Amino acid sequence: MTKLRTEGLTRRFMGLVAVKDLSFQMDEGEILGIIGPNGAGKTTFINLVSGIIMPSEGKIEFKGKDITYAPAHDRARMGIARTYQLIHPLENLSLVENIMVGSIFARGHSLKAARANAEGLCAELGLKDIDRDTSRLTILEIKKMEIARALANEPEVLFLDEVMAGLNSTETKDLIATVQRIARERKLAVGVVEHVMGVIRELTHRVIVLEAGELIASGPYEEVSKNPRVLEAYLGGAA
Ligand SMILES: Nc1ncnc2c1ncn2[C@@H]1O[C@H](COP(=O)(O)OP(=O)(O)O)[C@@H](O)[C@H]1O
Ligand SMILES: [Mg+2]
Q1: Residues with beta carbon inside 6 Å of ligand 1?
Q2: Which residues neighbour ligand 2 (ion) by CB within 5 Å?
Q3: Which of 135, 144, 184, 204 is the residue whose CA sits 20 to 30 A from 28?
Q4: Residue 49 counted as domain residue
Q5: Into how many domains does the chain fold?
Q6: In terms of Cα–Cα distance, which of 165, 146, 161 is closest to 193?
Q7: How confident is the model at residue 239 (pLDDT cuts 50, 70, 90)?
């Protein structure tokens, strides 16, 4: 079942076209990689789909419903969640309280219900000692906390914007397995932005490649990674 679909999605910032005529879809249970050089429009795309910013042109549908101009909080309630590239734990709140914030805002849960829900999410993600202050958490725990906060919205579509950044290889393996498990168990459609191609190769079923806001290739990683246009975009971008 198709969860999310865009058609001709375009966003301009002054003269710059950050996302250009982007048509794509994401299905239930699918882990989709969103890759491309710095500045390709990946975060802008997630911002558009989650309603943080509005498109200049084009259309966004969630389960067949037009949500192109729906406000962000409506989309969160409908089931579109995301993490942020720059993580921002709320200081002076504990691990579990940071997760509770998600369901209090999006679902209107009572404190008690939010706590029970957050405790369940911590168990699901293997987060222990949940009353710790966030200053005491490892990077891996903070990343899991961010994911748990997004899951507190009970999403059907989840975007992860560079969640693996800053993790060592053991932690990365742990988080890859965690994301795969929650996607499978919750039948989520997951969109992942990542720079490390090993992560994309292991984690995703399919990737889309953006360059200067345009979709230049899509397909399984093994196929897309051999595409001359993709190689050129990466080598050109890195040079
Ligand atoms: N709020 C904004 N105002 C102006 N330009 C922006 C804004 N957000 C992003 N951009 C520009 O849009 C382009 C795409 O940025 P971004 O989506 O962050 O890329 P990526 O996440 O792929 O690195 C960049 O050129 C960036 O400078
Ligand atoms: Mg980005």
Answers
A1: 13, 16, 18, 36, 38-44
A2: 42-43
A3: 144
A4: yes
A5: 1
A6: 161
A7: very low
